[in-house]
Design a protein that fits this description.
The protein is an alpha+beta fold and 184 residues long. It contains three helices and 14 strands. The strands form three sheets. It has a seven-stranded antiparallel beta sheet, with helices on one face. A five-stranded antiparallel beta sheet has the order 3-6-12-9-10, with no helix packed on it.
Length: 184
């Protein structure tokens, strides 16, 4: 039997409690210095002028909740590498919190980058996302031609290479929060 791309996309439920998710969103809404995402594309290749409409905040080990987030990501990634044993990540990048307001989106792209936004240099092996809320409409996560609307506190882990282009659909109502890290 051949492997399907979806065999390498894993969703892990209940990685964070709803109360913890609410606390994290509340804390960063009150304390983070949000910046518009600088992720964009080459308009000569696509005709588009923007690949994203979201605000971001880079969470480091100096921020509150960093240790909770690191433990949560580590739990999801540990489960992933028990199943997918050929992947041996050695480091996590800083965590980027994504804040999509109504109309926010991220166009289809891949995460196989050498460096970006001051991240660790190198090519990531895995992308790990943590969903902090689910009380919005639209904003579904698209990957490998599949659409995911995961519950608050769930994580998605997948390879960061050309085989896994992904996107966030336009948020129609409410605000969508997630956190992403890349594993080198």
């Amino acid at each position: 039997m051949t492997n399907q791309r979806t065999d390498y996309i894993e969703v892990y439920h209940n990685k964070l409690t709803p109360t913890a998710c609410d606390s994290i969103v509340s804390f960063f809404n009150q304390n983070a210095l949000w910046n518009p995402s600088t992720f964009s594309n080459n308009k000569e290749n696509t005709g588009a002028t923007s690949k994203v409409d979201m605000n971001e905040y880079w969470i480091t080990d100096k921020d509150q909740y960093y240790d909770v987030l690191k433990k949560t990501f580590r739990s999801a990634v540990d489960e992933y590498i028990k199943t997918h044993t050929r992947i041996t990540p050695t480091a996590y990048t800083a965590f980027r919190m994504n804040h999509y307001s109504e109309g926010g989106f991220m166009s289809r792209h891949i995460d196989n980058i050498h460096h970006s936004h001051g991240q660790t240099y190198g090519y990531p092996q895995l992308t790990a996302l943590l969903m902090l809320n689910d009380d919005y409409e639209g904003g579904n996560f698209l990957i490998a031609e599949n659409e995911y609307k995961t519950a608050k506190g769930s994580a998605i882990v997948f390879p960061s290479n050309f085989m896994f282009p992904h996107a966030v659909k336009k948020v129609e109502k409410g605000t969508r929060y997630s956190i992403v890290t890349w594993l080198m």
